[in-house]
Amino acid sequence: MTMCPPCARRPALAATALAALLPLAACTVGPDFVPPTAPAAKHLVPPSTASRLAPGAGEPVQRLVEGQPVSAQWWRTFRNPALDRVEREALASSPTLAAARATLAQAREAVAVARGGYYPQVDLAASAERQKGPPFALGLLPSASQGLPIFNLYQVGPTVSFLPDAFGLTARTVEAQQALADTQEYQLAAARLTVTGSVATQALAIASLRRQIEAARAIIAEDRRNLALVQEARAAGRADRSDELAAQAQLAEDRAALPPLRAQYSAAQDALTVLVGRAPTTWAPPHFDLDGFTLPPRLPVSLPSTLVRQRPDIQAAQAQLHARSAAIGIATAQMYPSFPISASIGTAALAATTLGTSRSIFWTLAGGLTVPIFHGGALQAQRRAAVDAFHAALAVYRQTVLAAFGQVADTLHALDDDAAFAAAERRALDAANAAADLQRIRYAAGRGRVLDWIAAERAAQRARIGYASAQAQRDLDTARLFVAMGGGWQDPAFGPSSRGSK
User: Fold this and answer.
1) Are 329 and 29 in contact (CB under 8 A)?
2) Which pTM does this prediction carry?
3) Which pick of 75, 239, 398, 412 has the fewest CB atoms within 10 Å?
4) What percent of the chain has pLDDT over 70?
């Protein structure tokens, strides 16, 4: 840790004046921060999860690749140009990210303010006074007839004050502010990751809901045709009133299922619009179709020791822990003596025209010592509070790591189940289509009942909705895995680098 900049970096005047008064051999008190040790777990992939997600039934195969780095623009692995455009627009226009960037800039300025404590404070003071008072200090002789004289006093000159960082108060303050700035930087990265993950989630939800709405409309169209067939059959005496009522009830039920799907679809569109920083009346999402997304075949899975460096939320928790550690040093340094130093040089005269003459020059040098003796236990309590805050931050860090590991494990379990579910839905769809075809052929040949055909057609349409949902769920959980792995935020390709601008 750098205790203070070299003296050569300080203004030459201040260095010359102050170096003679106090040798600046700083000692930084308080604990030096040591990052927590890496977790003991060796793998993130649960034993029950296959490294090869091959569900069969003609479904895409995915493979978990341990140790593979996460792509910075992970959403491009879905090979959907519309999604890529929306992601880039969200990164550029999201108000959430704009607020996070401004907060980070504010935190960096706070670091610059703290670093100002390393240097002397130089000010220029000037004053003009008109006084009536004792003239002795100015070398004036009193007049017995006039009493105290009235005179003008003019002063101008620089003043220098400096508080040497003898016990590391300034160093720990800078350390704490830098750690808080790091926290804001990681929170910006986490916000970026949240925005990109939410954009992908909403885009996939839109595509899935569009497919479900199309299937629901197809079911309603089938219901109308089936109702017409039943009505024809009843007119011909091959069906009764109960068959017609059953067909009408089915049509009404399926119609009732469509408005909630449309409401969810509109909500997903509006959510995506807000994510890109637009109003729903001024921007419309592109046409996302489920077939336009390619399921990524390779899924990166990091080692636990790597994940804690990849996840920005974990890094933010660690930076917050660092700030709490530095706060202990600040509280400790406040229990030690301080040595304020001040110097001034200027010119003072009774007339403005004589300012700056050799006889009007004055200067002062002063050194002080402040030793905390009794503060009613406040300084000790302040340090104990800082230690307690550190332990609280350490617990938050550990919980953040555990939550991250749990999120990854849950997502991997979900991917394993999604693959099996998609294969099952695909087989169900194939069976339902075959049954519907058979019933259609039987009815056309006069050997089947119309209600059997209706039931088979509806089952096939329902299977299409189920299969579309299963496909979308695999895509959604794949996107969630990329987010859970940290989304490659360290790579400059993720966006404008913030790490290099400190």
Assistant:
1) yes
2) 0.83
3) 398
4) 87
Asked if residue 154 is part of any domain, the answer here is no
Alpha carbon separation from 468 to 260, 430, 434 (Å, rounded): 17, 13, 18
Distance from the Cα of residue 352 to its chain's centroid: 60
Two tokens, residue 331: 């509280």
Place of tokens 């004050």: 161
Instruction: Provide the CATH number for the domain around residue 475.
Output: 1.20.1600.10
86: left (phi over 0), alpha (psi -120 to 50) or beta: alpha
User: Range of 418's domain?
Assistant: 34-120+174-332+379-501
* DSSP β-ladder status, 298-301 and 150-162: unpaired
Whether the Cβ atoms of residue 83 and residue 200 lie closer than 8 Å to each other: yes
Q: Which residue has the tokens 């990524």?
A: 296
466 phi-psi bin (left φ>0, alpha ψ -120 to 50, beta other): alpha
Q: Which helix (H) or strand (E) holds 63?
A: strand 62-66
Contact, 148 vs 142, CB < 8 A? yes
* Residue where the block lists tokens 């996302």: 288
For residues 244 and 223, what is the distance between their CA atoms, to the nearest angstrom? 11
Angle (CA) 33-192-72 rounded to 5° is: 90
479 falls within a domain: yes
454 found inside a domain: yes
Tell me the per-residue pLDDT of 334-359, one tens digit each, with 9 for 90 and over.
999 999 999 999 888 888 888 888 88
How far is Cα 172 from Cα 162, in angstroms, rounded to an integer?
17
Query: pLDDT by residue (tens digit) across 251-290?
Result: 898 899 999 999 999 999 999 999 999 998 889 999 999 9
* Torsion sign across C-alpha atoms 271, 272, 277, 280: negative
Amino acid at 379: L
The rounded Cα 36 to chain-centroid distance in angstroms is 21
Burial class (CB in 10 A: 0-12, 13-18, 19+), 287: exposed
Contacts of 337 (CB under 8 A, 6+ apart): 166, 167, 369, 370, 371, 372
How many Å apart are CA 399 and CA 305, to the nearest integer? 16
Three-state SS at 487: coil
And the tokens for 418?
A: 């999604």
The total domain count for the chain is: 1
- Residue 149 CA to residue 141 CA, distance in Å, equals 9
Q: How does DSSP assign 117-169, residue by residue? A: GGS-EEEEEEEEEEEES--GGGTPPPBTTTBS-EEEEEEEEEEEEE---TTSH
| Distance from the Cα of residue 292 to its chain's centroid | 29
Return the structure tokens found at 350: 């009774």
Q: Are strands 62-66 and 298-301 parallel, antiparallel or unpaired?
A: parallel
